[in-house]
Structure formats: C-alpha cells, structure tokens
C-alpha cells in the first residue's frame, strides 16, 4: 500500500528540474528575448522582464506554489488584448512577434516539469528565427548562433536523467552539435533552389518603420534625413566611376505643388513615356539597395531601358520603380546609365500646363519676382541664370538648421530668412521657374557617395539625400539645375561634411576632421565585411545561384536538385557511419597489458611468439630456457608486469618501472 501511494510522488520528484537547470533556462530565455524587448511597447517589455525576475526569485527562494490558474488566465487575456490595442492586430510581423514574445514569458508561470522545459526549448528555437524578420545583418547571425548553442545546452540539460551537469560541459557539447550542423546548412543554402522575393511572406504592418526618401517633400524633410548615418545603398562600378559632380542618384520626382509641399500629383492623360536620347560614355554598375518600404529604386541619372531589373520599369518621369510590391528586403540589381542625355525633347501641351501650374494666392512675392523677369522679355536660359545669380550673390546660407517657415514658405525663405537646405533651394527655384512660365519639377534622390577605403565600392548614406530641379527647355528637353551648387558648390564636389564644416556643429559622422584614424579605418573594414555578407549571403538569389553553380557544371534546377540529393545522402551516410563507430563498444586495455603486448610482438619477431595456452609466467620461463641471455631481463619484465597490473598502489610509478624493464629485453 505504501509503495502504491509513494510512486506518483517519486515520479513527480524525478521529473522536476534542478535549481541550476531552471536558472540556466531563464538566462537562455533572457538572451533570446533581449533584442525583441526594444521593439515591444513599454508595458509589454515591463511584463516580460517582470515575469522573468519573478520566476528567478521563485527559484532562489524555493517558492513551492505557482500562480493560481485564474491569475494565469487573466494575465494571458490581458496580454492578448494589450497587443491588439497597441498594434490594431495580432498577426503580422511586429504584432505577431510581440504576441509570441509575451506568451513565451507567461509560459514561465506554469513551468514545473521537464515536459514544460522541452516546450520552452522548442518555443525559443522558433523565436530565434523571428529575429531575422527585423535584421539580417552579420552580427545578428553570429548572435543567433550563440543563442542556438545556449538553447541546445538547455535541451541537453533537460534530457539528463541525473543531477545538473556543469555548464561548461553542456555548452561545449551544444556548440559542437551546432558546428557539426553548419556544413549541412551551408550545403542546403548553396544548392537548394532559391525563391525570388522575400522569404518571409507576412502581412505588412501599418506601423512598420520606413527609412529614406518620402513620396512628398516639404521644407525640413531632407535636412532631418541628413542626421541619419544609415546606409541607403552600396554601388560598385564596372570601371572608372563618374566624377563626383555627376553622381546624381535619381529617386522620386514631384510635379504638384500645393503652396508648401511637393508631391507627384496626377499626371495628365495621354502622357506617354518620354524619349531619352542617351549620349556620352555608359557606366555599368551594381547596386545593393537597403530596404526602404517604398516602390522606387535608385539609379544613376539617367538609366538605360534595355537592361532594367526584373519586375521594374521606368515611369513617365523616368523614375525607376517596381511594377508591384515594395523594397522590403535588401535588393541587388545591375544597371547601365549615361550622365549626358536629352530627356523628352518634345513636351506634350497638357504636361507643359501641369508643369507650370501654381496654386492661387500662394507665395505672391516670389511669383511677382519671376513674372517680372518674364515681363522683361528674358529668354528661359537668362531667367535661369538670373535666379542662380540671385542665390549666388545675395546673402543666402546653406545650413542644416534652417528656421521654421509658415504657409508661404518660399516667400519667407527668399525674402526673410535666406537660410535653408537643399529642399528649400530646389523648391523655391522650381516655383520661380513655373511663375516665369518655364515647365519645372523637383527631383529627389542622393548626390555623391563615399568610396570605401578597403573595398572597391561606394557607400551612399541617408546623409547624402539631396533635392534638385529639372526645367524643360526647347531643343534640350528636361535639364537638371541644382540651385544648391550656386550657394554651396563644395556640396556637389566634395560632399555634405566639407560644405558645412566650420559653419555649424555637425554630427560626428559628417565631421571631416574625424574621417581618418583607427576608428574610421575600422568602420570601413566592418562595412566591407557587411558588404560581402550582403552580396554573397543575403543577395544569394536565383540569378546569383545559377551564376555560381555554372562553375560546377550545374546548369538547371534538375541538376541542382540531383546534386543536392546525392551530397545530402552521402553526408548523412558518412555521419551515420561515424555515429555507429562512436557507439561501438571498445574493449578497454590497461596500460600494463598494452606494454606486455608490445614485448610479445618484439619477441615474436625474434622467433619466440607467446602461445595461446601460455600465461605470462610460463611464457617467461620458456623464453629464458630458449634464450639464457634474456633470462634476467625477461624475469625483471615479468615481475614489473605483475606488479603494474595486479597491484593498485602507485600505478604511475609501477607503469614507469614496467616500461623501463621491457626496454631492457633486447632479443
């Protein structure tokens, strides 16, 4: 009767985890969840940290009672409701990850047996993958490999039937398992057919972050973007790059003005794609574009139509855009561009009307100034020169900290403040041209780019964002005019930092005095490492895979699948044989017997083998009779062997004596 009553208690006791194993589980869970805590609402991060701390105290204080069921249910429902209220959904990238992160922490409130630990382990493996939804950088992969080893160590601990293992033992074994899996992972990565487009097909989040250029432009937009050191894209030229003053990277084009803000507006019907007559040398290059959650791609002004990336086109404003979708993952594409061209030599009348339209009662002083130039009978080229000369000769200042402007922003900038950034100059110049009857529009993008000191490529950051104007002239088509160059020519020739140096305080990454030395070189090398990671790992799509595998004679998908099958089968077969060999029971031979067998082989070579029915004593007597000259050394070796093998005292000293005695037997 007593045995029957005590057996369930004994089973429950053996199923509980030791205190040290629970603490390691909590440490591992904290390591896995840490990057997500920065993305959660404050209340959710506080809840996750609070539950982990509470469970740690429960382990230290050895609290027996867990939370009651009603409280666990209330916490779960509250967390579910809170996620829905914070994100407006429970699915999608950010909301879904937030929900699973909070629920993983709440799982600790009912963790009490090894079975629950196994569930937590697999949950942590799943959460580990979700980090790639937010970052696919090299450091993220390294961090997740460490996390994978830590989770595997917890899994080993949970399956150990005895007491807690030393942490060094479990982590070393887990790291070995992860490293053994890496060759198989690399093989599958290289040979498994790549799928075009992003791997993660999650619904888009309405509140998802977006970086880079916008689909509209107002005073202050680009100057605030300049404060960012984030990479916009990397570009590698096939040969010599164009001059710095020609490195205009074309982005969104704006033709509608409401008096304060520029946007694309509605293009008139019948406006066909413009004709571009490309002139001069062509520059071939490769761009790795960072995700920006926008439709447009960046291209050196002006790209060829003949070799555009797949699923892209040049729109009527010669802006390179995706046919569908957004840039949600890092994208690699190749282009050819000409920096000299004639774009749309013939302008449709309806489009000319749109490109000279201005809102009524908006910026009246600027419109009156431009209309006065036109009333003087100046031709378009002279009006352009007059506007640029005004910026160049009057007290206009190029600054990152322009004053705030009101409704008539252009009037206030031209006649009152005289202080602005590139969007102020592009916006006011374009308005002046339209008021003078010249078709004009605003183009945004990037200008310049910094050559990496280690790799042969150029880095274009968000701080290189720029805005300029295009005016349409008879016989020449759309002509780029950059009014910023009239105020700060060094911005175009040497970049943003030198053009503002000495005028005002700059962010550290823009200060020219800091762009050398050990730290700058270290950053350049790290960016080069990231560029290789982006190109060969994150950019390893269908085209790059086919190009790479052609070197090995794999020309199509069937060849790739066959090679993958053969190599995986061979790899798994070799791994299985190694496991069988490791599991085979090996007879244990003590050092004394191993030394005696070495003596046996030496005597057998001299014609004195030991017979199967002979023991060591009988064998030594027969050798002594056959070879009296070996009698003394043979008897000494026999005595040392018996002492080393059958006496426990001083085993190392006796083994040394045996080795020395056997060395004296020289047949």
Overview in brief:
This protein is of the alpha+beta class. It has 24 helices and 17 strands.
Structure description:
By secondary structure, the chain is an alpha+beta fold. Helix content is 51%, strand content 13%. The chain has four domains: 2-191; 216-514, no CATH class; 549-583; 591-664, no CATH class. Helix 11 (364-375) packs across helix 14 (422-435) and helix 23 (631-646) runs antiparallel to helix 24. Mean pLDDT is 83; it is low at 1-14, 199-204 and 206-210.
**Number of E-state strands:** 17
The residue-averaged pLDDT reads 83
Total DSSP helices: 24
Which class do the helix and strand fractions yield? alpha+beta
The biggest sheet, with number of strands, parallel, antiparallel or mixed sense and barrel status, is: 5 strands, antiparallel
Name the overall outline.
Answer: elongated
For the record, the count of structural domains works out to 4
How much of the sequence is in beta strands?
A: 5-15%
Rg to the nearest angstrom?
38 Å
How far apart are the first and last residues' alpha carbons, in Å? Answer: 73 Å
User: What strand order characterises the main sheet?
Assistant: 10-6-2-15-14
Can you tell me the residue ranges where pLDDT is under 50 for at least 5 consecutive residues?
A: 1-14, 199-204, 206-210
Tell me roughly what share of residues is in helical segments.
Answer: 40-55%
